[in-house]
């Protein structure tokens, strides 16, 4: 997929930090996903993730809520979510579809700070956000 972020996505690939495309979120509905990290036990690490309008934007559109990390059988699971509605850190706060194709793509990345270590980019990519027709009452 060619996007306005192609160069950034290529730089992630060159650094072995993505690109990752998360499952599609639906605007104004709650979003959750579990990321699986294979390898060492990262359950003691701190992970943060943000969505922005462009990779170098100073404005954070939404910050992912990070659930409790768990390690089992060589996999650390990282639950992530965005809230429903239009408040802060929600899918509804993300800008509306600008080209009327029903989906917008927003760059995101996650940073990990291992216990006793320094923060580094875990991975980055694009979060697709689908428009909605019907919302729950």
Description:
With about 140 residues, this protein is mostly beta strands. Helix content is about 5%, strand content about 40%. The protein is built from one helix and ten strands. The strands form two sheets. Strands 1, 2, 4, 5, 9 and 10 form a six-stranded mixed beta sheet that branches. Strands 3, 6, 7 and 8 form a four-stranded antiparallel beta sheet that branches. Strand 4 and strand 5 (about 60-65) form a beta hairpin. The termini are far apart.
List keywords for this structure.
137 residues, mainly beta, four-stranded antiparallel beta sheet, 10 strands, 7% helix, globular
Average pLDDT score: 93
How much of the sequence is in beta strands? 35-45%
Termini separation: 35 Å
What is the SS-derived class?
mainly beta
Helix content: under 10%
What would the principal axes of the Cα set say about the shape? globular
Radius of gyration: 15 Å
Described by strand count, sense and barrel closure, the largest sheet is:
6 strands, mixed
Question: What's the β-strand tally?
Answer: 10
Weakly predicted, low-confidence segments: none
The number of helical runs is: 1
Order of helices and strands: HEEEEEEEEEE
């Amino acid at each position: 997929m060619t996007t306005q972020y192609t160069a950034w996505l290529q730089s992630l690939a060159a650094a072995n930090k993505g690109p990752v495309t998360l499952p599609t979120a639906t605007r104004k509905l709650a979003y959750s996903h579990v990321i699986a990290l294979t390898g060492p036990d990262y359950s003691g690490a701190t992970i943060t993730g943000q969505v922005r309008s462009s990779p170098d934007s100073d404005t954070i559109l939404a910050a992912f809520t990070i659930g409790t990390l768990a390690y089992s059988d060589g996999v650390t699971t990282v639950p992530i979510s965005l809230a429903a509605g239009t408040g802060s850190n929600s899918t509804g706060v993300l800008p509306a579809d600008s080209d009327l194709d029903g989906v917008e793509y927003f760059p995101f990345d996650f940073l990990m700070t291992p216990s006793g270590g320094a923060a580094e980019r875990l991975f980055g990519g694009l979060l697709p956000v689908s428009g909605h027709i019907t919302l729950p009452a």
